[in-house]
Amino acid sequence: MPRPEDSQWAVSVAQIASRAGQSKQIDAVFPAPEGIGDDIVGVKPGADVHVNGSFDSIVDGLILTARISTHISTECTRCLKPIEKDWNCDVTLFFPYESERGDGHGNGYGNGYDERGRHGGKGGSKGGSRGGSKGGSKDEVEIIAGEEESEDTYPLLSGGAFADLEAPIRDTLAESLPLQPLCRPDCRGLCSQCGADLNEDPDHHHDAIDNRFAALAALREQLEAGGSEG
């Protein structure tokens, strides 16, 4: 059975999990996990994903504040041209310590995580830490308050020694992908009649012909032709 720390997305955080107020910078490239988008818009599995930011320890967990950067492949929804562009996302993620321990420094998975490694809520781990911090210092209160800014929650692995970034990378990028990607904001799209690219020929048009009276015009010509023969 593979160990969690052997994962391509594992980051060692044991050195900052022992006490609140410590930080660890992260500036690394990871392979893109599978399942980010689809054939229309997405990130190819194995593509480079750059994570640049820092882990900060608080009383009941770690906060990761970072920018996630990669390259996406898609096509314009108006003119259907292929699009290859850099994609950046700013994230704040929460990695709580194990909730069973009341000293604020428990580690591990805790309870309430789904099969993708995401937590159903933060209330369990936060409640205990806040209750114990009311009589603490001002600095400690400010450190705990920083949790409120976190957007998603993920478990720590191997007794709190590692943070696995596979699920955070996949979830963050998948949720940020554009629903209607455009090659440029003012893309004119394609001609609805012939499919011509209106970006390349802005003056392209078709003369409108009203055929509603074409049958009557033909009948009139027949009547005029018959009258002249008589």
Automatic annotation (TrEMBL):
The lineage of its organism: Bacteria, Bacillati, Actinomycetota, Actinomycetes, Bifidobacteriales. InterPro entries: YceD (IPR003772). Residues 104-139 are annotated as: Disordered. Coiled coil: none annotated. It comes from the Bacteria. Residues 122-135 have a biased composition (Gly residues). PANTHER family: LARGE RIBOSOMAL RNA SUBUNIT ACCUMULATION PROTEIN YCED HOMOLOG 1, CHLOROPLASTIC (PTHR34374). This is DUF177 domain-containing protein. Pfam families: YceD.
